[in-house]
Amino acid sequence: MQREQALLMLKDKVKTPNLIKHCLSCEAAMRELARYFQEDEEKWGLAGLLHDIDYEETKDKPTEHSLKGSSFLQEQGVDNDIVEAVKTHNEIHGLPPESRMAKALFCVDPLTGLIVATTLVLPSKKIEEVSVDNILNRFKEKGFARGANREIIQRCESLLGLSLEEFVGLVLKGMKSISQDLGL
Fold first, then answer.
1. What is the pTM of this model?
2. Which of 41, 39, 167 minimizes the C-alpha distance to 109?
3. Which domains does the chain have, with CATH numbers?
4. Residues 54, 68 contacting (CB under 8 angstroms)
5. DSSP H helical segments within the chain, as ranges?
6. Which residues are CB-contacts of 1 (< 8 A; sequence separation ≥ 6)?
């Protein structure tokens, strides 16, 4: 599946602008991580872009989130690696991510929210002004961006072999590359 086709499919299923921006953030982060690990940028990007394709449909049924999405993507003929990454990104199911791509998506998903929240508390609200240190300082504040599961983010160390600082830096770099699309 080509990116443009995937983006159209996402926009057909997801109408909330901030959720679309979250998916774009995950796509950019996954592409940056794919470059770092010398993996398939297109495939990793699609996993990030499509990971929440069922969220609006399942937001009141968290036990269905990612299962419906992965089933839908499988029906659309999306690559099995992407389908598995989408399925396992929701920790509620207890399905361990197996591939490096799935592990990356699992850790990226909550971090993008923390980065956006860190950006929005700056007077400028510009992601270009956000540093890794800004994010790591906010990471330590348990009351800040409560929805960003720190335990999952920190699993970048055991799942990907990246320090928290390295992981945050790569994800931030990816998100900065699409700052205009994110409005940040």
1. 0.97
2. 167
3. 3-182 (1.10.3210.10)
4. yes
5. 3-13, 17-37, 41-50, 55-58, 67-75, 80-88, 100-120, 132-139, 150-154, 156-160, 164-176, 179-182
6. 46, 76, 77, 78, 79
**Residue 154: both structure tokens together:** 């920190």
* Rg, the chain, Cα only: 15
With a CB cutoff of 8 Å and minimum separation 6, the contacts of 175 are 25, 28, 29, 112, 115, 127, 182, 184
Amino acid identity of residue 83, one-letter, is V
Query: Which tokens hold the place of 31?
Result: 């592409």
Q: For residue range 42-87, what is the model confidence (pLDDT) as tens digits?
A: 999 999 999 999 999 999 999 999 999 999 999 999 999 999 999 9
